[in-house]
Amino acid sequence: MRKKKSILDIIGIVFCIIMMLIVMFPYANMVLSSFKPSLDVISTSPTFFPRKWVVENYIEAFRNSALPKIFSNSFVSSTVSCALAMMIGSMAAYAISRLSKHKVSGAFMHLTLFMRIVPLISIAIPMFDISLTLNLYDSVLLLVLFYTAFQTPFVIWVMKSFFDGLPVEVEEAAMVDGCNTFQTFFRICLPMASTGLASTAILSFIMPWNDFQFALFTTSSNAKTLPIALSELVTAFEISLAPMTAIATAFSIPLIIIAIFLQKYIIGGITGGAVKE
After folding, report:
1. What CATH topology corresponds to 64-232?
2. What digits encode the pLDDT tens for the residues 244-274?
């Protein structure tokens, strides 16, 4: 039995390594292509590793004077909307968790689920009309408001599972010591659910950071984000693959840094929310 288990463990490890290589191959190819000369990127006989290492793709990509503003639009809209969604969603999730016996909380959870599963493309055109009516078209404020509204139901559903697993006795002890509901929430519950907060915040940041559909309908120049700027390198006459790989590589760096520094919270959040006492 022990020998059989060891063989199964080895098979599992080999399978995971193969799957990791399959998943990482496109990204590794993109990063390496960003250091290739332009002609090598579109060559009919490509190589995985660069024949000659160059940085001209990054120089050409960041020579665009509008790129810092575009990056700022993506960063601000993603960061602010993530912070707002986490603040609103966490408080709502805590309230629903502690009022779970009431029928209203169940109806509210189903409503938030319906709001989250609505396809983004189905509301992009109505939001375009609303942005024109409110004079918010092509503004970062519109992106922040929409991303916050779209991500809040997700935060509610995920964080509720974490608050459900927290012992109510700790909160009761805090209230006996003089804490009110808000103090108990911010000083006791949020620190205890830190792994859930971190993992949920990362996922809430990724969605607006990668969004293309909504930004395509509601921005043109002033509030343009990086996915839109990246797509504009593909025209009817030319596909600038080399600069695209450079921008895409730079675009992925913030997410990689976040994942590296918060990986223990991501793993803890995924496993912590799955177990309920």
Report:
1. MetI-like fold (1.10.3720)
2. 888 888 888 888 887 777 766 666 555 554 4
